[in-house]
Design brief:
- The chain is α+β, with helices and mostly antiparallel strands.
- It has a single domain, classed as YefM-like domain (YefM-like fold), CATH 3.40.1620.10.
- It is about 20% helix and about 20% strand.
- It is built from two helices and three strands; from the N terminus they run E-H-H-E-E.
- It has a three-stranded mixed beta sheet with strand order 1-2-3.
- The protein starts with a strand and ends in a 37-residue tail after the last strand.
C-alpha cells in the first residue's frame, strides 16, 4: 500500500485519484507522518441487476441427488 504526505496529495490530487481508480490500489495519506485517511477506489454498481451475481457461486458436485450420510439433526 502506497503512503503519501498530505502536501504531496494536495499538489497531485487528480493524478493520484486516477491512479487509484485505474490500479485499485489504496493510498494512505499522512499528516506529520501519522496516517489520516485512506483513498480507496469506489465500488461500482453493476450496469444491470439481472446477472449481477453471475460467476460468484461455484457448484461442487451433484446438488440434486440425496446425500448418503445421515444428518445429526435426525438423531435425538
Amino acid at each position: 500500500m502506497r503512503t503519501i504526505k498530505a502536501s504531496e496529495f494536495k499538489a497531485k490530487c487528480l493524478q493520484i485519484m486516477d491512479e487509484v481508480a485505474e490500479t485499485g490500489e489504496p493510498v494512505v495519506i499522512t499528516k506529520n507522518g501519522v496516517p489520516v485517511t485512506e483513498l480507496i477506489p469506489a465500488k461500482r454498481k453493476p450496469d444491470k441487476v439481472f446477472g449481477a451475481m453471475n460467476g460468484s457461486v461455484t457448484f461442487m458436485g451433484d446438488i440434486i441427488s440425496p446425500v448418503d450420510e445421515e444428518w445429526e439433526a435426525l438423531h435425538e
